[in-house]
Amino acid sequence: MAVANKLDGPRATPASGGAAEYLIVMLHGLGADGNDLFGLAPMLTQAFPNVAVVAPNAPDPCDMAPMGHQWFSLKDRDPEKILAGVRGAEPVLNEFLDAELKSHGLTDDKLILLGFSQGTMMALHVATRRPNSCAAVIGYSGALIAPGYLEGELKSKPRVLLVHGEDDDVVPPQALAAAETALLAHDLTVYSQMIPGLGHGIDENGLRMGIGFLMETFALAGSEGES
Q: Catalytic one among 104, 117, 141, 192?
């Protein structure tokens, strides 16, 4: 299914062969595409056989590389310009999320956003502003854009896991603590992990943390449904 700006990408149906009980949407980083994170899909569908996965390409061609896509431009690093770029991509991503959930017959509480770098920036921004809270956000090597705006714009409080490499030379490691502090100040449940020796990327430790976080998230949702 393609929606606004033909936002679409690789997808995996539940390994169980049945209907999806949860939807994981992967948001890639600057200059990549949906295939960049989709390599994680087999691991996720093996761990969670009733989960569907989709990794859309960002809506715009990357303006800093000969190929790849971007959620917003980073040619100008002025914070207000970056915020404007995030806000510009927000409705496109929201329309895609709404369409994907509808196609699976799911609601926001069955949605997980998994982002890397610029994708994490989009995930944190969108997930805290959707009218209904998604189940969780897993953010690798990213940042919370313009945390000061949360005070007047926060609508939802998903569970959040933030993972960052201590040696990241693209998005400063300090971005993890800044995002965690801002989200905790607004009563979100946040877990974080700084990984020594890791640069701008996702390693096996981070993947294991993500899977463990999702296991806990799904177990909590199950216990709430039984109460």
A: 117
